[in-house]
Amino acid sequence: QVQLVESGGGLVQAGGSLRLSCAASGRIFSSNTMGWYRQAPGKQREFVAYITRGSNTNYADSVKGRFTISRDNAKNTVYLQMNSLKPEDTAVYYCAAGGLRTSGIAGAQYWGQGTQVTVSS
Questions:
Q1: How far is CA 65 from CA 23, 46, 59, 62, 83, in A?
Q2: What stretches of 1-121 show up as alpha helix (H) in DSSP?
Q3: 73: buried, middle or exposed (CB in 10 Å: 19+, 13-18, 0-12)?
Q4: CB neighbour class for 59 (10 Å; exposed up to 12, middle 13-18, buried from 19)
Q5: What is the pLDDT along the chain (121 residues), one digit of tens a residue?
């Protein structure tokens, strides 16, 4: 069953912005750290950002200062605001839930279906 649903991906020019959304079930949202990973063609899935139940955040070095993760507890939704997008940000972005880590995908217990982000130069 799909328990995390992403939306908001699309095509944007370099320097532009997108905001991704991840709607989670109440059970998952209330019990887990929520985060975002991405996977570009031919590359491993990599950590982007996470936010804990206490709203502590962490970001991959490659997106620090450009991306912001946030959560709306009333809507059981996590957001990823992506600014100053670069072509190297092009990837399928996946929402994840679990005991997330800043390296690798270990700890992720739930995954969304992914949403494509394409940044043109």
A1: 24, 18, 9, 9, 9
A2: 26-31
A3: exposed
A4: buried
A5: 678 999 999 999 999 999 999 999 999 999 999 999 999 999 999 999 999 999 999 999 999 999 999 999 999 999 999 999 999 999 999 999 999 888 888 899 999 999 999 999 9
Only one residue has tokens 């100053």, namely 84
Nearest to 40 by CA among 8, 62, 70: 62
Closest CA to 80 of 18, 25, 32, 24: 18
**φ/ψ of residue 22, rounded to 5:** -135, 110
Contact indicator for 18, 120 with CB cutoff of 8 Å: no
Query: Residue 108 is inside which H or E element, if any?
Result: strand 108-111
Residue for token pair 């995954």: 111
